[in-house]
Amino acid sequence: MSEAVNTELIHEEGRSLISVILLFIKLELLTNLVASPFIIISFVLDDYKLYEACMFVEIIGLILSYFYVVSKHCKKEKFKIRVKQKFPIRFLVYMLLIQISYTLLYETTLGAFLNRFEVSKNLIESGELWNSAVIFGSISVCIIGPIVEELLYRGVLLEHMRKRYNPLVAVLVSSLFFGIVHGNLHQGVGSFFFGLCLGIVYVKTNSILASIFLHMVNNSLYTFTNYPFVDIHAMAPVVIIISLALLVISLLLISKTKIDESKKFNFRFLEKHNLAQ
């Protein structure tokens, strides 16, 4: 009885900062535990230079581990992922503007500064594996990664915190988790600041579908383009001014866009299992 009451309190009031930190550690450990058989198999395949098979196994492990752990958490705490809220089509355009302006601003400021530091060995090895298995690597980075990461960092962690704290605090802390988990300086700093954009979009729309879309666009552009048509660093001052102005404008447009809370997507499977709101 008391456990049921505690679950209801957590659901209604959210979690404290310490509780969210412990939840973050718990979910990450459980995810890695569930994924461990797939990780072991992928290491074996990597030794035999079966890179496509290695990436395929990693993708399956990533999907199963995250969805299993998040669904178990939702059922245990009667917690629902915000995924049903519809938002205007023009919102997608605003998110594209955010992504482009953020990327240009980051690459000509912090990104340029971080390029002076040595890239971590793990990041180099990940890039080499991706180059050896482009198809599955692209699926993992551009589709699967954004879905599972948004489920955890915005769908669970940020949502728990925003019920108790100011949304800005929730966005900042969830973005910090998002940066830390990437495990290296270059990705970590970029992920933290991009996490702020993702968090703002999520809070505004009340839907991880919006943050998933933005995350997919970001990863896809980083994967398939490197801005070869222009040297943005050679014209950094101009790029910084334009991209900063564009970022501010796009965020203002998003903040002023009204969301009709009565319009919802119908996800029968998620509703049947009481996982979505």
UniProtKB/TrEMBL annotation:
A biological process term (GO) from this entry: CAAX-box protein maturation
Keywords: Hydrolase, Membrane, Metalloprotease, Protease, Transmembrane, Transmembrane helix
One matching Pfam family: Rce1-like
UniProt lineage: Bacteria, Bacillati, Bacillota, Clostridia, Eubacteriales
InterPro entries per record: CAAX_protease, Rce1/LyrA-like_dom
CAAX prenyl protease 2/Lysostaphin resistance protein A-like domain segment(s): 134-220
Name under which the protein is recorded: CPBP family intramembrane metalloprotease
Organism, as annotated: Oceanirhabdus seepicola
GO molecular function: endopeptidase activity; metallopeptidase activity
Transmembrane regions: 20-44, 50-70, 91-113, 165-185, 191-214, 234-254
